[in-house]
Amino acid sequence: MNDPRPPAVLERLRGRLVVSCQAYPGEPLRDPDAMRRMALAALEGGAAGIRAQGLADLRAIRAAADVPLIGLWKDGAAGVVITPTAAHVREVAATGAEIVALDATARPRPDGRPYAESFAAAHAAGALVMADVATFAEGLRAAEAGADVVGTTLSGYTDDSPRLPGPDLELVARLAAALDVPVVAEGRIHSPTQARAALEAGAFAVVVGTAITHPTSLTRWFAAEVDAAHRPRPADLPASS
User: Fold this and answer.
1) Which family does it belong to (predicted)?
2) Residue 231 belongs to some domain of the structure
């Protein structure tokens, strides 16, 4: 059983907002300095910590800000891509990220090794483990295997988890009630109201990404509504001949 007292770096995140600063390949903001600036802007707005992807991005953010940093490395196009092997874990930990996030779902890992080896690699490097899961059973297994924090990050992104329009608050509540380790709510949190609801469901902290740091998605949301309002209504269309 894990020590129920969270480490000091996690205590700095208790009841607070973590902002995920990530850009997809090929996007204009896919640049370490852009993500560094994004992280600084988020911190100025009140974020208590940052979650970021990629070794160069993590180094740039670590050099610019002394706040809890959740680091990951996405490698691959499908399946387990979030810090998928122990080798990836060691590289992420070497950037100075105090917490290494990795995929702890039941899906097969690209090297065929159990994720417990990645947990051990993180701990050997002096970092904590954030286990990104999709289901209740995965959360239980990850905590039992030694995860320091469990995140609902992947709920809705695997075949055996429901794709909801908003955050999976039921999963947050169930894990928070069952685990001694902190449970972080992450995934499809698109409004301050939803972030608050996640904390009220029992989350230790909340991670928000797209709704704060991904202007391409934000623009699409607005553009879709504007385009829908601009389209002629059926009653306005000319009658067919």
Assistant:
1) Belongs to the NanE family.
2) no
